[in-house]
Write a structure and sequence with these properties.
279 residues, Rossmann fold, alpha/beta, globular, 2 domains, 6-stranded parallel beta sheet, binds nicotinamide-adenine-dinucleotide
Amino acid sequence: MQILDGKTLAAKIRKQAKEDVTSLKEKGITPGLAVVLIGDDPASHTYVKMKEKACEETGIYSIAHKMPSDISQDKIIETIEMMNLNPNIDGILIQLPLPPHIDTQKVLQSVSPQKDVDGFHPFNVGNLVLDLDCFAPCTPIGVMRLLEEYNIDPKGMDTCVVGASNIVGKPMMNLLLNKFATVDICHIHTKDLAEHTKRADLLIVGVGKINLITEDMVKDGAIVIDIGINKRENGKLTGDVDFENVAPKCSYITPVPGGVGPMTIAMLLANTITAARKR
Ligand code: NAD
């Protein structure tokens, strides 16, 4: 069993990002990322802080637009439209989830597709489905980059994605399909989850449920990617996979923390630099 070490790879990508930013700055371009943060969800604040710190270390200019949870949808969209026009901003990120009175899709669709570094705009979603040049969501592209680093080619593999959200599972499915994997995608209404997971050479799980995937649900020698982030009662982070019992059966597995998580932020920096190059 080999660990897929996202922490080390993310550090390598961030080092490269720093060099790329330095050379862009020599050409007079400072990549800029704007983050919209609404309300006071502690997890969202933590994620935004991590993103700001990563930008700072890389030399990317970042600005966080923090707004109260009772802000109107019009005001949010007005702020986004201002950033769409701001030539110093290359990427715009809307920290999710948004408060219940806000129509998330309307807000995401107000971001210019050229600045949509999270890949959530229907323009980019459509291009991803068609396997055309686009911004794709950072977590699933982080998974693809991690597989590539370990020379794991999903072509022809039986893969199973558990979790079918717009930001994790669905784009993961499309990225795998674009690499010619056979993709099975499961969600809360899947009748017999184990029936699907047991067939997978490559099992990717992004649900948000501790120990959802147990040893009996995994094929011998499978590659297991755990996207889930859950907090245990003792405050420690853990994934969706029962790592201790599943790992001995795997050929490769990601740890939580230190697997997919650090890759997500690294890919956000990479997408922001790509957007700046297209300025
Ligand atoms: P979400 O709640 O939007 O979606 C969860 C998905 O899991 C849904 O498709 C749902 O149908 C499915 N699901 C729920 N219970 C299930 C069950 N018992 N069996 C099978 N499927 C089930 O969540 P999300 O935003 O996609 O995030 C999923 C997980 O990934 C969370 O733990 C989140 O914290 C984590 N996450 C991690 C990163 C990272 O950087 N590592 C990034 C984004 C999300």
